[in-house]
Amino acid sequence: MITLQPTITPEHLFAQIPFARFLNLELDIAGTELRTHMPFAPHLIGNPLVPALHGGVIGAFLEMTAMVQLAVAENLEQTPKPVGVSVQYLRSAKPVSTYAEAHINRVGRTIANIEARAWQDARENPVALLQAHFLIG
Amino acid sequence: MSDCFFFDARRPKAQYVPTAPFLLKANLFLKLFLIQRVVSKKMPHLSDDILQQLVETIPYMKAIGASYLGHDAEGVSLKLPYREDLIGDPHTRVIAGGVVTALLDHGCGLAVWDAVGEFKPIATMDLRIDYMRPATPELDLIITASCYKLTRSVGFVRAFAHDGDIHDPVAAAQSAFIISKPSLKSHQKASA
User: Fold this and answer.
1) Does A87 contact B128 at a Cβ distance shorter than 8 Å?
2) Domains and their CATH numbers in chain A
């Protein structure tokens, strides 16, 4: 179960990370769930012909979501560092808002295992999935 | 060898067929030529101009300031100059993992286009990244990617992110790209 600690607010965390500002990430908090939102911006396009968001943008967005979820749930002082990240791309991402949620599988002493999913129209139709290991502490 | 008694005594007839070695040699040359053609057909390359365009016309690559560096035996290379707004950890000033992810993804894509030898729509299917160490702040980040296997519909790529020395990588990536064939549907749409 994720508990939000009052000492670090997620908004504060996002405001501190320049790259999160670059992607223009926003946070929605619904009870104990943390959901990130990446509004569409023209500079996020990776394929102008389709058009579709850049795969790297989706990867970065998922990574950032997992990182924030972990930092908030574990009340970490430093941002967790990714060790291994694996992204599966299931659909091409349309130039609209993208949402993501992360789920913590296990938190050990040094490593945490997290998975995340990003979607656009419906949560059941994920655009991409992420599996990651983060170094904490 | 011809004045060697021992050799001549054992194989006397070989000397009287002067055309045979010549034909063999010609055959060998022909084979080599064909192999070379097959190999070059299998792994063609795109020109630097096109590869450069495939980096610089992509809005996201433009936004983070990436540029095409070149093409050598190690593969296709991209460069990203250090920038304040791409920092992922404000305390250490290290560039965000997400930026490295995006660059690795694009580098891998370029390697696939280079191997395919023409511009075809491709899409990342799977991307796995291992982060070995933080990228050094203030240094340019370089991505080197090579497509080591290409089938009709999938390209397999290995890529490294480093600060100049590929043997001291920041991150390593392994990815698979799907290479789309123009479908019947889009063909009908285009002709209609």
Assistant:
1) yes
2) 10-135 (3.10.129.10)
